[in-house]
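Hi,

Apologies if this is the wrong queue. I'm a grad student, and the batch job for CLUMA_CG011768, isoform A from Clunio marinus produced an output file that my downstream script rejects. I'm not sure whether the problem is my script or the file. Here is the sequence I used:
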Amino acid sequence: MLRNLFSSALRKNILKSLSTTSAEQVSENKITEILRNKFPESHVKVEDISGGCGAMFEVHIVSNQFKNLSTVKQHQMVNLALKGEVKQMHGIRIFTQAQ
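Support response: The file is valid. Your script probably expects a header line. Output copied below for reference.
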């Protein structure tokens, strides 16, 4: 009985994860759009480094908004902009530079 219960719960979790709509999933395009809106007139490059599943991203941003700010502050700004999306990721690598 325990085996059947576990199998049933496992099946439900798998089906739930497979039924996630693309609107709910984090994507390179979604992250790029958010960052371009937050950091206009900046160079933004986003790459899914998880093999396409949307669990890990690498973000490169060159912006005038980072001028005279520490790297920590620059990364805080990026994390704040992506607050909702970061919750859905396994991880994110952030590279920032003042323009």
